[in-house]
């Protein structure tokens, strides 16, 4: 028994189940259950052949697809049903996770966002007070480096939260940290390696254009020719990025190494690249527009403070207005950024994990393992009985 039951990668590859319908987590050879007696079984110890599931002495009985009958409902111990998921179910599962486990999910994202934005706000205020000093620039650079690292840690912890939410298990920030901590160094290396791969592809595609500009006065034709490398470069970077997009959940939940997780992601995304890309793109766009909506009132208030600060200049058209220090603008914008990040990061992390779970359900029958891990008994008989 591992500390993440049900998540271990299969020891041998299983055939894909892309066209399979909802899978019912049923043992291969179910033993007698409560429905046996209902369909003609006598007292305990009775000998002789007994009617099976859906049979009754005297003739054939209705099966699936006939009135009043249907397949057993898919088990749902947590935020998603344990079967292949539709796009709407992935999105609903992500929002349900954040809503149900809001103390843990929002607490994690709030802590990371507050730390990152506080550091950036102090650096920007310092730069405003001492524009010629080197210290603020160093602090800003440190903030730009620390932000992605904090995001990696937050995503790793949120991955563990979502894995527990799928099984319906409660989880605290401390429990998520304990589960994620052994893999944090690996997932950090994985994220840096993935980013480096994408960056190298983009740099190679942009290199002809950079050289054309650097050598002197390029003609429009030269710029156009050099720029034609950008489009296939961007396409290649996106393709590789999607291929590797499920590596982090594989590393965290299967306790894999960096390169094994990258290979796992490629196998899982195989034959489902467009679906993975479109769902990810949809959520990124939704998160972007939602963040912009949240940021708008903070930006407007900060702009009002900026107009007030411009009133200090006698030549400004806003001369005479109440002055406000730019640090106030920095604080206001930082609060808006913290709020936007707190609400969007957990949803994006949950969608990524649920995409990974969906791929494993379709290819490897993970739903059966998760049903066992959740302690759900097998379901028999007509739906609703």
Automatic annotation (TrEMBL):
The chain crosses the membrane at residues 106-126, 138-162, 190-216, 228-253, 274-307, 327-357. Residues 1-81 are annotated as: Disordered. Residues 69-78 have a biased composition (Pro residues). It comes from the Bacteria. Residues 34-54 have a biased composition (Low complexity). Residues 55-68 have a biased composition (Gly residues). Keywords: Membrane, Transmembrane, Transmembrane helix. This is Glycerophosphoryl diester phosphodiesterase membrane domain-containing protein. It comes from Kitasatospora gansuensis.
